[in-house]
Structures are given as structure tokens and as C-alpha cells.
Known about the structure:
By secondary structure, this protein is mostly helical. The protein has one domain (about 5-95): MazG-like (Helix Hairpins, Orthogonal Bundle), CATH 1.10.287. The protein is about 65% helix and about 0% strand. It has four helices and no strands. It is globular. The N and C termini lie far apart (about 45 Å).
Amino acid sequence: xxxxxxxxxNKLVKFRDSKNWNEYHSLIxxxxxxxxxxxxxxxxFLWKSKDEDLSNEDKENLxxxxxxxxxxxxxxxxxxxxxxxxxxxxxxxINQHRxxxxxxx
Length: 105
């Protein structure tokens, strides 16, 4: 199932509005929710040392937690009136001109 950003955000906004949650969806509250959901992603990796340590159940849980993170990121983009795809491409363009030094010790 593939949807455009517009279709996805319209469904999310319709759901949010059906629950009367818009008053709680300030940027600061959405930021906090995004942080909490991001920590749920991290929790899946607790006590694991490599990707191969993830079970199939872990991978399914990871997908659902990523969906939560993306949902809050989409709501924030909606508040900022920016398409997240455009934002990611803009940041990628900036990163093309940056350099990082990764050293193994």
C-alpha cells in the first residue's frame, strides 16, 4: 500500500480530529511525544549488540514504533506547513556538502 504524503496526512488529520486531539497537538507537545516514541525504538535494541540479534517479533515491534515516530513527525510537518519529503531532500542537499570523520579506536 503506497500513499502520497497528502493522502497520509489527510488520514492522520481526520483521525486526530475525530478524537478531538488537535488542541493537544502543539509543536511542543508533538515534540515530546516524538521523543517518547523515539525512546520506544531504542528500547527494542536494549541488551542487543548487533542487528542480527533482533527477532522477527522485535522487527515487527520496530516497524510499529517507527510508525509512531513518523506519525508525530508528520503532524509536526503539518503544523509547520512543510512536506516532509521536501524537508528530507533539502537536508540531504545540505549534507552533500558536509564531511564526517568516523574513526575506529
